[in-house]
Amino acid sequence: MSTRLDLQSLLMQARGTAGVSCRRHLNGMLSSLIHTVGIDRNYVRGEGPYLWDDRGNRILDCLAGFGAIAVGRAHPVVTDALEQCLRLAPPNWVRMENNALAAEAARRLVGAAGVSATRVFFTNSGTEAVEAAIKFATRHTGRSGLLSWSDSFHGLTCGSLSVNGNDDLREGYGALLPNCDRIEFGDLSRLEQALHSRNVAALIVEPVQGKTLRDMGEGRLSEAHAMCRKHGTLLVADEVQSGCGRTGTFLACHADGVDPDLAVLSKALSGGLVPVGALLVGDDVWNSTYSSLDRVFAHSSTFHEGSLAMTAVIATLAVIEEERLCDQSRALGVELREGLTRACSSCRSFRSVLGRGLMIGVDFEPAGVASPASLPMIGDRLYPIVGQSIVSSLLNDHEVLAQVTGAKRPVLKFLPPMTITADDARHIANATASALRSFENGSAYRAAIGAALRLTSARLRGGGD
Length: 465
Fold this sequence. Notes:
Elements: H1 7-25, H2 28-36, E1 43-47, E2 50-53, E3 58-61, H3 64-67, H4 76-88, H5 100-113, E4 119-123, H6 126-141, E5 145-149, H7 158-162, H8 167-170, E6 180-183, H9 188-195, E7 200-205, H10 220-230, E8 234-238, E9 262-265, E10 277-281, H11 283-289, H12 307-322, H13 325-344, E11 350-356, E12 359-364, H14 379-398, E13 400-401, E14 403-404, E15 411-414, H15 422-440, H16 443-460
Parallel strand pairs: 3-13, 5-6, 5-7, 7-8, 8-9
Antiparallel strand pairs: 1-2, 2-3, 4-10, 9-10, 11-12, 12-15, 14-15
Helix pairs in contact: 1-2, 2-16, 4-12, 5-12, 6-11, 9-10, 13-15, 14-15, 14-16
């Protein structure tokens, strides 16, 4: 019999060497970045919307695993369901069976999503679900063209990267998929021109963009969908981050009155514990791929529909419904937007509050920061580092973990769990105003210069060990 793993002892030992091990065996530049900008903490516990570090500090987690911790960390309903699944041990990945847990998860997801698409293909991640959407759309339409908006984010695997609207993420990877075109965000005139060729299989859109926190404005997504239908193009709603109630409706496109042809979900479906994604597909599109018995595995995946993942989906959907988290996101989102606007209005770097529900961004102007041209060797790194310095101020001065997006201009982004309180929302607003003032009085700027110099030195040393 194998020796029992003492996980508690292993964790205690591993935390002591995590920095060195990450730099040597994982993404060393990430390790260097969090050290350089001063946000390296040793997190030892998470519950609800909070994290605790090894010094006993409680941190309000507004990064939330890039949105995956939507129902909070260690939610008791999700945790209990997964513990039951481990004890019952239903056999995983039999493949040649009618998977009861997957069927129930799909039934509940279709009901919660409230779309006409009634088929579900479960995946292991959001980018994998986007890849599936590309395959289903091109197979159904017989077309190879794909359209997306500028500044969009759809994942980092080959197909999803091909429709990604961020040029910097595609740099160095060659042509990727052919016939992918990006249109300036919300340019419906250009969209109409591109669709006129009738070679476009799908337009893939984030109803609320993850990088810029923009939406198209009232009625415009519906107008884009009508254009797609006119030209035989499918609309794919990428709801990986905006879905499952985060923006105040179960799907963000519901607020725009849009019933998408395909919808992509992930992140929140996991319950914060087991990776999972899903593609919702209409019967006609589905049947184009699974058109006969010999095509039963035309699209498949070894690890999809795993017992733990399906249990997490079922439990998470129950939590979202029973705790009315869509309504909570909508109400607290309004409160957070208004609070940020009030608290930050006197900050000269503040421009506006962006987003919807509890997917919120603060657009700020790095006024007074020296031109990159005047800072040889570090200028190209200063602009994003300035934003990271504000993130550092939020964490180290106010115990709020957030992020700055990689958009063309930095946007301070908050994706707290949908279980935060009104007090949490007020704390986020006041902490943000304080961090912006710290930036404006020069302390964050000086920190940014120092961080950029340290990061440059680390890169010159080959990783910063």
